[in-house]
Design brief:
Number of strands: 7
Shape: globular
Strand order of the largest sheet: 1-2-3-4-5-7-6
Strand content: 25-35%
Number of helices: 3
Length: 150
Amino acid sequence: MIELIKIRENKNIAEQAANWFHQKWGIPLEVYQESMRDCLQNKNIVPQWYLAIDNGVIAGGLGVIENDFHNRKDLTPNVCAVYVEEDYRCQGIAGKLLQYVCDDMKKQKIDTLYLLTDHTSFYEKYGWEFLCMVQGDGEPDMSRMYIHQL
């Protein structure tokens, strides 16, 4: 059975989570480690990190950061690094993670989230709306920015 967890409430898994996100996205490990440390210090609402765990195995995860490497610094905070392991796809885990993060951010008095993606219809299934095209840092092509009002 899949369990959804908040890194801030499960400090013991932060290093494993940083490694997992690093392997999935190729962003330097140190970036994830620093963000997880910031999350654990509970000084600010953002950043936050969330995992879907199946019997101790990370099945999926996502984060909330100020800016997901794009030129629209005014569109914040951003859901980022959404990933579900192949063996766990098509089971609703991404949708559950997205709902979990939205519920948590709403409790923290955040009323709007943004999400940068190249997907063209996936996030609409979960109540996200296309907002505009934005330029990703170092990316030649524009990417889709979605918005979700909580």
